[in-house]
């Protein structure tokens, strides 16, 4: 396919996604297959992509693609933690002019297959470039996302190929105590969107010594309905029981457990926090955990590298996962 054909096919796909609503059959079918993918969470992912697949957003991104002179078959193994989490890699591979062998997570097979079918309807030539497979074969490069355990397996299994291997990452929020009500409401979205299952979700907050959590907990109340989701609630009850049996000090607002802990990654339905006295302590923590942090969220006056509150799930197309430039990798094949 010509590069311009690919470019405009994705723009047409974006227009089609704008019309999808919660009554669409694929929304209900996906939720039936995976209860973590609620209709609202699916629509959030679809609306994100409909907002990005337009001429303005794609143009800058496209300018950094060098269509492959000798296309290779790129194997892609996707995660299934949030809806359409692998679509950015699909976009990069196809914009770069390579062929795609796609091994979908069973947790996100319905919605991802459907969006590819939409793409095929928009531009049938993509059928010659995309294969959905049960096992990767005849690939010359690999992009794979999994847990810390599976990433070690991927590194060994694909050790002789050009590759991007991603593992678990989490995100951190830094509070100063001067946040507005809007800041804290936006932070609650960074914590609870997709039930906190994404690598860009906040799993830990750092707060100044003596921080008053009253306003913080008020900001969380808009997400109290997560307690009605049976899978989330089961996690909440389980970890609450563990904390109580172990006599571990924690805060509990009825749908989230807040516990002081030095670790970055907190279990589902819990959030870790850590006090700091100096800004340098925050910088040291970030530096020590850099390989495990996806993004840091907070006010720009604390650091101009922080992602603003409420923007964790709205990355620019060039905000590459794990800060590894996927386009550069593909351009170098």
For the terminal residues, how far apart are their CA atoms?
18 Å
CATH architecture verdict of the largest domain: 3-Layer(aba) Sandwich
Fold-level CATH name of the largest domain: Aldehyde Dehydrogenase, Chain A, domain 1
Oligomer designation: single chain
Task: Describe what this molecule looks like in 3D.
This protein is an alpha/beta fold. It has 2 domains: 3-168, Aldehyde Dehydrogenase, Chain A, domain 1 (3-Layer(aba) Sandwich); 170-297, Aldehyde Dehydrogenase, Chain A, domain 2 (3-Layer(aba) Sandwich). 39% of the residues lie in helices and 16% in strands. It has helices at residues 3-17, 25-33, 39-52, 55-63, 87-95, 109-122, 148-157, 181-192, 214-220, 230-245, 279-288, 326-331; strands at residues 73-77, 99-103, 130-132, 141-145, 163-166, 170-174, 202-208, 251-252, 257-260, 270-276, 293-297. Helix 1 (3-17) packs across helix 3, helix 1 crosses helix 6 (109-122) and helix 2 (25-33) packs antiparallel against helix 6 (109-122). The longest helix is centred in the last third of the chain and has 16 residues, at 230-245. The protein is globular.
């Amino acid at each position: 396919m010509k590069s311009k054909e690919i470019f405009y096919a994705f723009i047409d796909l974006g227009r089609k996604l704008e019309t999808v609503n919660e009554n669409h059959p694929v929304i209900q079918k996906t939720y039936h297959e995976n209860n973590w993918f609620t209709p609202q969470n699916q629509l959030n992912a679809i609306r994100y992509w409909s907002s990005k697949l337009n001429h303005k957003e794609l143009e800058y991104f496209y300018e950094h693609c060098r269509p492959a002179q000798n296309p290779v078959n790129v194997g892609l193994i996707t995660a299934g933690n949030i809806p359409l989490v692998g679509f950015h890699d699909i976009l990069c591979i196809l914009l770069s002019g390579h062929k795609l062998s796609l091994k979908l997570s069973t947790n996100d097979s319905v919605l991802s297959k459907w969006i590819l079918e939409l793409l095929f309807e928009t531009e049938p030539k993509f059928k010659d470039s995309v294969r959905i497979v049960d096992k990767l074969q005849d690939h010359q490069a690999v992009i794979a996302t999994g847990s810390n355990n599976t990433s070690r397996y991927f590194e060994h299994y694909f050790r002789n190929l050009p590759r991007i291997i991603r593992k678990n990452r989490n995100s951190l929020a830094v509070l100063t105590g001067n946040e507005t009500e809007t800041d804290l409401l936006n932070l609650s979205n960074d914590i609870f969107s997709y039930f906190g299952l994404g690598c860009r979700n906040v799993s830990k907050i750092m707060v100044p010594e003596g921080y008053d959590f009253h306003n913080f907990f008020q900001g969380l109340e808009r997400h109290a309905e997560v307690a009605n989701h049976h899978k989330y609630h089961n996690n909440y009850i389980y970890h609450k029981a563990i904390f109580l049996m172990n006599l571990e000090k924690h805060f509990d607002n009825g749908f989230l457990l807040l516990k002081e802990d030095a670790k970055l990654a907190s279990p589902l339905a819990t959030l870790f926090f850590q006090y700091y006295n100096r800004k340098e302590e925050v910088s040291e923590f970030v530096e020590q955990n850099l390989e495990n942090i996806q993004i840091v969220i907070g006010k720009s006056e604390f650091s101009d590298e922080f992602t603003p509150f409420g923007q964790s799930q709205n990355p620019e197309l060039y905000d590459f996962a794990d800060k590894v430039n996927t386009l550069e990798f593909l351009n170098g094949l």
